[in-house]
Amino acid sequence: MAKGKAKGPKGKKITLKIAKNSIRISYDGGRRLDLSKMGITTFPKCILKLADVDELDLSRNMLKKIPNSIEKFQKLRWLDLHSNQLEELPKTIGTLQNLFYLNICNNKLTTKSLPEELNLLKNLRFLNLGLNCLECIPTSLGALQELKELGLFDNLLTTIPNSVRKLPKLKKLNAERNPFPDSIKKEECVDPIKRIETLYLVQEKDLCCSCLKTCQDEKDKMNKLKNIIPSPSKELSFPLLLTPNSTAKDNQEQW
């Protein structure tokens, strides 16, 4: 019987030739290195020679660690590491100042293994931390002022810091399937964007000429429709008289 420590699965060896042949042109003309679904168990050092790519996809492999040398990819705008076995991230990830997309969903990350340097990614628009083992979210992520979408689903969270929930440009926040206490309303934890989805009626004097004409045309159409198909039980509705800022009154005829 062979002695010694049992070895894990042997992953596919990525050569520089394989890596070069895996470069694709993205929809916006950038260069994307796609090494997803290749059974990789260790970060291929040879791809450091291709560090000028704009996008790097290492998703759906068996990586447990990303080396500090990831800082070589200074042009990187898009980094996909989802569905690996990552237990930690390097602090040097905070040096990737051009990064606007980071997907580290479906790994084995804990709150302690998230480097504080994540808050240095000032241009980050999309961050997916779902399907990990996060017990809480660092309040320092509130420094990501450009963030528009944040995935926190399927973790161990019981609360979300106000600094994160109230990020000024956040449009989507998915925190479903976390053990939040009953006292926390679901809409506050999962979808705080409801704060910008409610409506107000506006007065005629506040409309520009173009908007006023559009509203009047819609009103005329509704009046014609009412004459063709009488429905006295229905109140008139003028959807184009609404602007997305607060709650519309039920009786729009009063306006």
UniProtKB/TrEMBL annotation:
The protein's name: Leucine rich repeat containing 18
Superkingdom of origin: Eukaryota
Keyword Oxidoreductase found: no
Record domain Disease resistance R13L4/SHOC-2-like LRR: where: 31-129
SUPFAM superfamilies noted in UniProt: L domain-like
Record key words, sorted: Leucine-rich repeat, Repeat
Species of the source: Anser cygnoides
GO terms for cellular component: cytoplasm
